[in-house]
Amino acid sequence: MVKITDVARHAGVSPSTVSYALSGKRPISEETRRRIEASIRELGYRPHAGARALASSRSNVLALVIPLRAGIHVPVVMQFAVSVVTAARRHDHDVLLLTQEEGEEGLRRVADTALVDALIVMDVQLHDPRLPLLRSLDRPSVMIGFPLEPSGLTCIDLDFKAAGELCVERLAGLGHRVVALVGSPPEVYVRQTAFAQRVVQGFTAAADRNGLASSVHPCEATPAAARTVAEQLLREQPALTGVVVHNEAVLEPLIDAFEQLGLRVPGDLSITAICPDELAEYLRVPVTSVALPSAELGERAVELLMKKLGGTAVPEATLLPPRLTERASTAPRNIP
């Protein structure tokens, strides 16, 4: 392994001069700096992470806080994690993944050490108990999600309320008059998880605005629960012709259940969803959907953090507008 002394010998300077060139703690001549940089490239020297942290008072590590609570759809969560890690590496930062449900205690333990420079916090609740601590920390943070009172925080997310509205507006535009939302698992609503609550708000507002009969049905993330909800919907709303799904795990089982109960998609029933494009595109019946932009959200959350670490002001609120893609699961209402 190449050491700093090897670089110094190759460049014809002292080890302390190499250290100053790396840390920027003391000025050195441009000629000397170029010579050191050339030696670093030629020898393939990589500064030790601990040495970099000591020199810069930075760890070059971001914390990504994703409590893996009940009702979380892990494949989608991992898409966010991958996008954050990929974006962080472009800024020469690593990512410490925190998945335990530890609330304030876990955040404080990490923040009180030199482990991380900044935090990205996910699975945000409307009345999130972590907010007072995040507002008081001396380390920057970004939330992927919007609590009810986001003032004093930096938040970014898809506009889930507008996403719920957009799905209903599409169904209304196709002539559907009775619609239902098949939503997240019940525990997600019990926790008042922000994105799920906002989908319900948007769905209900758009249905009322268009004079549609509507209902909301939380659904466990299992095929059996999808079948139960499908049976309940047809029993309670026999005129149902439009469904919005905000639960990735039951999207395909729900289509199967409706078809087993005698409803063709989209001939008898139109379905829209809020989910990743790659899921909606490759189902047996490709689903009209609002994309879940996990890659963009993760990347932009990291960019906001990098600006905050650099002392640049950033907007408190960033809402990404929803984008709906028409596919084979929606059609005009079939009027007998």
What brief labels describe this structure?
336 residues, six-stranded parallel beta sheet, six-stranded mixed beta sheet, 12 strands
Quick take:
This protein is an alpha/beta fold and 336 residues long.
Task: Describe this structure as you would to a colleague.
- The protein has helices at residues 4-11, 15-23, 30-43, 49-56, 74-90, 103-111, 131-136, 160-173, 186-190, 194-209, 223-236, 251-260, 277-281, 294-309; strands at 61-65, 94-98, 118-121, 141-144, 155-158, 178-183, 213-218, 242-245, 270-275, 288-291, 317-320, 324-325.
- It has 336 residues and is of the alpha/beta class.
- Helix 5 packs across helix 14 (294-309).
- The protein is built from 14 helices and twelve strands.
- Helix 5 links the parallel strand 1 and strand 2 (94-98).
- Strands 2-1-3-4-5-11 form a six-stranded parallel sheet, sandwiched between helices. Strands 7-6-8-9-10-12 form a six-stranded mixed sheet.
Spatial gap, N to C terminus: 77 Å
Low-confidence stretches: 50-56
Instruction: List the secondary-structure elements in sequence, H or E.
Output: HHHHEHEHEHEEHEHHEHEHEHEHEE
The helix count comes to: 14
- Beta-strand content estimate: 15-25%
Per the principal axes of the C-alpha atoms, what is the gross shape?
elongated
Topology, number of strands: 12
* Main sheet properties: 6 strands, parallel
Mean pLDDT: 89
Taking all Cα atoms into account, the compactness measure Rg is 25 Å
Helix content bin: 40-55%
Structural class based on helices, strands and sheet pairing: alpha/beta
Strands of the largest sheet, in order across it? 2-1-3-4-5-11
